[in-house]
Amino acid sequence: MQNTIIFETLPVERGAIQAKVTATGNLNAVADVLVSSQVSGNIQALSPHWNSKVKKDQLVALIDTEISQAQVDQATPSLRSAHAATLTAQAQIEKAKADLTAANAPQKSPMESPPRIWPTN
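-> structure tokens emitted (121 positions)
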């Protein structure tokens, strides 16, 4: 059986133009854009609507900072402790250098020392 094409013809009439379009299938966005971020968290606000135009530097989403701020607050004491340990280690290095310099310095014999003059009363 072959597909047959059927034409419908009508006489021309004057009147309002009517247009009707029938389609089947899926609707797709004009352009899909994949958006990713370097941080994660709950989205507090989402600015653009679906399929709306977005301009350069426009805020797209506002991420809630509560979780990341809690992580910063939790890590701050550890950072300060590590900084204090670094300062202590640097002071120990400087003391070890000074001790090494003193140990390698030529020792003066008692004969090379200048004579001491003791006060008399």
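Strands lie at 43-46, 61-63.
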